[in-house]
Each structure stands twice: as C-alpha cells, then as structure tokens.
Model the fold of this input.
Amino acid sequence: MIKITIDNKIIAAKEGQSVLSAALEAGVYIPHLCHHPSLPDIGECKLCIVEIEGRDGIHTSCTTPAEDGMVIRTRSERIDSLRKLSMELMLAGHPSECTACPKYGQCEFQSLIQYIGVSDTRLRKVPSNNLYTEENPLFVRDLGRCVLCGRCVRACEDVRGVGVLGFKTRDGRTEISIRNGGLLADGDCRFCGACVEVCPTGALHDKNELLRSYGTKESALVPCRSKCPAHTDVPRYVAYVREGDFSEALAVIREKAPFPHTLSLVCMRFCEDACRRGCVNEAISIRDIKRIAAENGTDLWKSRAKSSPSTGRKVSVIGSGPAGLTAAYYLARKGHTVDVYEKLPKAGGMLRYGIPGYRLPEEVFESEIEDILQAGVRLHVNSPKTPQELLNEGTDAVLVAVGAHKGIRLPIEGNDLPNTYTAVEYLRNAALGSITGLGDSVLILGGGNVAFDVAGVAHRNGIKRIMMACLEPRDAMTAGKEEIEEGLGYGLELYNGKTFLRVVQNEEGKLSVLCRDVAELSVDDSGRMNIVPVPDSDQWLTADSVIFAVGQKPELEGFELEQNRGLLVVNGHRSSVEKVFACGDSVTGTLSIIHAIASGREAASAIDLSRRGW
Amino acid sequence: MQCNKMISNINGIGFPYSGERDRCSVDYVFRLLDQLRNTLCGKGVFCRDAASQLYSIVGSIRGGEGKSGDVGLIREICQASLQLADCEMTREAVKEILSLLDTDGENWDAHITRRRCPSLSCESLTIFYIDPAVCDGCGKCTDICPESAIDGSPALIHVIDREVCTRCAACEPVCPVSAIKRADVAGVPPKTPDAPVPVGSFKAEPVRKGLRKGLRP
Ligand code: SF4
Ligand code: SF4
Ligand code: FES
Done:
C-alpha cells in the first residue's frame, strides 16, 4: 500500500493511481476539470496543480502517479495564482451569463468559478466561434459554452472507440469539431451519448423535449427500460445478444417476465416506441432481438433464478393467463405453495383464447407454461373458483387474475340480433376449433388490436368481405401500424370516424348498421367520450354478421369484491377483502400482455411482502 | 500529455525578433501570437487560452487601446505559460515576448501611454498618405484598395480618403514609385491635395518644414 501526504494529511493510494484520484477517493478535494473518472487523464486544464516536495516546479496531480512517501501541497501562493489564472483564461472565452444555460446549477465549470473565486473582469473577453445547433438528433451542441476540456473527445475516442470528435483551430480559435465537418451523423456518430454524459458545461446537452416526460434523467436516457411496463433491462440483453450470448440474454429477460418467447412474437413493443434511436433513424428492433434470444438461449436462466426455501404458505391464483401465471411463478420462486385455478379446459387465458394462433402458435406459450409448472406451480383446469371458496379451503392468500373475458356490446338497438357476436366469443370459439359461421361478409365494429385479430382470423377462415368501422380517425386508431397495414394488405375495408346508431336485420337475414360520420371526438376529465356528429351523414353498412370489438370486462360474478366501472378496485394490489389480491386486466382493463405480466410480478411481490402479516 | 510542437512549426514569421526586419516589437508580438494561436493543437489552457488572451491584449495595444495594467498582465500570463504550457513552441514564444518587454519597454510604453507607434509599423497608429511630389498617377493603388478609399484617374495625383482608409497597408507595396507613405497619427498631418489634381500641379510647402519626429523620411 502506498502512503502519500497531502496538505499534512496521510492518505492511502493504490499502485498506479494518480495523486488526484487518490486524493479524491480519500475525500481530499483538489479542483479539476479535464479529469473525469471514466476517462484517461491528459493534464490540460491545470486546475489540479500541486507542489511536490523535492521536485521542481508545478505538477498536474491528475497525471502524476502516487509514489510512496510523496509529500504534496495543493495550496500555495504560486499554485493559487496559477489556478486562478487558468480559470480566468477559460472564463474569458465563455459567455458571462449562466442563468439561461440548461446546465445552470449542475455545471461543473460554474461550481469551479465559485470555488476558486474568479470573475471575468480582469482579462479581455475572447468570444468563441458561435456554433449553436439543434440540427443533430438527440443532442444540442452549444459550443459557445465549451471550455475545451476535451472530455468529449476522449469519451468518443478512448471509451467508445469511435473518434468522431477532435480539436480544430479555425480563424485562430479552437473548437471541438466533428469528423468530416457537418453534422454528427456525417461523422459516423453512433449517438451513444457518452460525450454528452461527460461534458462538464452546457455545451453538450440532451434535447429538453426528450427528457421532459420522464421522472429521472436515467429513465429518460434508457427509455426502453423505463417505458417497458415490466422494466425489462433491454440494454443489457441487447448487449448480450450482440455478443452472441443468447443464454445470458434470455436470463436477463426472464428476470422480469417468464414468457420471453411469447413476448418476442406478440408484445406491443412499448420499448421500441420510446427508443431514442428512433430520433436518429429508426428504433432498434428490440422485439426481434428478444426473439433471437428466446429461440437460441439455453436453460441457463434456470440456474440463475433464485429459489427461496419454503415458507409453508399457500397462495391460490384464480386465472391462468399471463398475469396469473407470472405471479404464480414468482411466488413459487419465493417459496410459497402455489395453486392456479382455471375455469376453462386449458391454461393460457388470452394467450390461448384471445390471440389467434397464426400470431402466437400454441407450442410457444405452452412450453413456457410448462416451465412455470416445473418451478412447482400446480395447475387445476376446469376449476371455476371464487376467492371466498379458496379462503374457506384454507389458503393463505388469493390472487384474482381472471382477465377481462366478457366482450362488450355497444348499447344500441339491435345489438343482440342473431349473427351478432363479441370479439371475445368469436376468438375463443376459433381457438376452441368451433368456428362461428359468419357468412360471406362480416362487419367489425372497433379499431383496436383485437378488432384486427378478429379480422385476421376471419380472413384466414375464408370470409370474402371484411369490413371494419371505428370511431377514431385513421391516425388515432389504437391498433398497431403493422396490424393496420396487414389488414389493408388482404383487402380489409376500413371506415374511420363513424358512430353507430342501430343494427337492423333485413328480409334476407343480412345485418345493416346505421352509421354517422364523426366531426369531433373528445374525452372529458371523467373519461366520458363526447361525439359531435356530422349532420345528414347517415349511411348503412351491411354484412352477414356483425362483431363488436369495442372492449372487454372481467367476469366477476360471485366474487363480492369492490368494483368501479366493472373493474376491480385495488390498493397496491390488495382488493377490498383481506388476503385477496388482484392483478392484470381484471384491474386495469384490457391493456397488453406485458402489462399483465408486469402486474402479475408486482402482485407476487406484494403478496410475498405481506406474508409477515399473515 | 505533452505536445511536441516546436517553435520551428511557426513559419509565417521570422523568429526571434529582429529590429532590422520587424521594426516594432508590439507589432511583431501581435503577429507572433496570431501565428501561435493558429498553429497550436488547442488542448492546453496555457497554450490555447493564453495565446488568445495575449493576442487580444496585444491587439488592443497595437490599436491604441492599451490599458495601464496590460504589460503586467502580459508578463503574468507569459510567466504562467512558461511554467505550464505543454509545448516548446508556446514556451519559446512567451519567453521571447517577456524578453521584448524587457529590452524594448519604451516602445510598449509609447503605444500604451502615448498611443503612438514610433516606427510607424502598427497600422492603426499611422496615417497613410500619397506623397503628391512622388505620385505619377499610375492608379495601381486604386485598383488594389479593398475599401475604395483612394481617389484618382490616370495622370492625376491620387488621394487617400483618411476617413475611409482602414490602414490595411495593401496599397503600400504596389506603388511602383513608393509614393505611399506613413505618418504618425498624433503628428502634424502631411499636406496633400483635397482632391486629385494633375501630376506636377500640386505645390506643397517644403516637406520637412514643421514636421515632427516620427515621420518617415
Ligand atoms: S454520441 Fe457520437 S460523438 Fe458522442 S461519444 Fe458517442 S459516438 Fe462519439
Ligand atoms: S463540449 Fe463539453 S466536454 Fe467537450 S470540450 Fe467542450 S466543455 Fe469539454
Ligand atoms: S484535472 Fe488535471 S490538468 Fe485538468
């Protein structure tokens, strides 16, 4: 161990460590600017200067390796005046006003000005080349505020190995230039953001609008992870896939979701919507990368998953959809005895009965369910249960994860005529193999992903004419872009901006829906929809059958739990009844598989944490 | 990190200063600093920012806008650079500046306190005029003047408009008969015609009479 003395204080240093790093680690502050813990030191700002006993002159502590027995002074008249002068020289080229700078209050340079106590009155102001630009994606470059510490250059060159940035002198003034001049993209910038991260001033900063909607800077900088409902560590598994380590990648995904392969086929990709790369060109294909991991990874995750010793507690889960099974899996890992009760003949919930097989083949989710059962979860199919029954049977906690399986019919005249169905009914029957005869043509009311699933199944079952009518204009439809395009690709007729008045049946048995054009659509604070119709725009759409794809509600008959607008009311996943928890679509309404999975995992941890009170 | 630039990297100007060639030490230092700030690598404070700061201070002295503390400031910055600049080029340059402050202090003082350039080198401190006794009306100066400050036609004595002239000195070397001359801003203005007149027609007072020290012969 090396010992050095700084300002009469003895501190320890590691072999090869610089005097500055050793000092900072020991809590002795030496001013510094060009030094950054993640970057190689170059000793150019001269703020970290010290005197060393027995050596001539002044030394930059960031580039001086600590040697045993060194005696160092960080302050003296000579050091103080040189340090001040260095600050004054840098400040001379920096704008005088700070308040308009986005780094105001968090700027290292500003702190140094105050700490060292300098102002820009003694020297001449030397204006720098004004190079403000917002033309690059993601970052603002405001090089008028640059103090030329060179950290960005080293981050790009030495840390990222890209080398886009460099020093350039133009008209007698030095500036940080981009390779090939021009914009970052022209210099082959990877938009990793390392340069922005290390810049001590307001010269490089993230575009404000990209940060605003996020709570913390970190969540803004890793939006894929923060916008994933389950907060899957996307950058980590993408990096593993890049290295070809699919098994590690898979283990990362499985930390948060026990259905990686399923998700890799049908997830709604909130991560990709948020991907910062989308501002540069297009989002990273995160879901496809996940698929590579899911299809090539081994069982390594099994050895990674921690299993706690048995708690002797019994948890019963009602519903075997993604929410219920996810909760069951993590609860089993936590050492609880878990029983899952499924009303239908097979497990999977909406994975099986809601998502058409052409999008999600049965084998995919079945093998993932098998993994969950192997973790010790017991499954009981054809077993409708209520929470009360299970509590009476002696379970310690019940988790309601029944999903939202009851299709809603619009409250209009004729909504129960023969040949009218809900999307849930139709999709479930299709999954069970009992195809509902729709005739030659079908009219789907609704424009979400479920509506497109219905259309897709109808198309694959040979229905000739498929029409879809919905309230929203084309660009406000909730369905994914790809789904819409696929539908239009096979000849789906799409009618946007329609409100529906009634359904009537004509003599031949065909159904006609009276529609009216929507002029204006708004949602008020209480969630009520206000529709302003276009006068005299009534028209009829006619088909052999009509399918309502306008939303789903949970089936909660006999559950005796507090509800609001047909959904369960919970507080931190606790329902209105003690020991009864709830999660998934039955609480949130239909959202997405990954939302259900996230909710299941959270509920599992709520139940696990509450066990102290049992 | 050490930068390995040498003083020999500066090649737009002779080094070191020579009184014979460079005449005014202020003007020389200004040009030296301009070379320096355009040659350095730009990484270190005591090269980059020191050179720009010195360039700015010396520039104002050379323009007759020096302040009383300027020499002290220049010394302070040069001494700091001598200790902390990373390249030999900067250290040699500041060493030369320090030595010129010592050996030619009077010249610097003349610039700062009297706003005069005794050797008539610093353009802002001199007046350019066309000696009416020498000009043969060739018009080469009119062609080159970027500000169109010179009035005249063939066979007329050309005249520089002192209000418009920026003292860039572009005309000086093109005159085949060396009629373009400099005078001290602070001195008695040389007699010249108000507007172009035919060559040979201008009757000036005897040129030497009443002129003060500082005029070029
Ligand atoms: S964002 Fe671009 S310029 Fe900045 S460090 Fe990364 S690659 Fe280099
Ligand atoms: S842009 Fe920032 S990091 Fe780069 S040199 Fe300027 S102040 Fe330093
Ligand atoms: S921190 Fe050591 S010279 Fe900048």
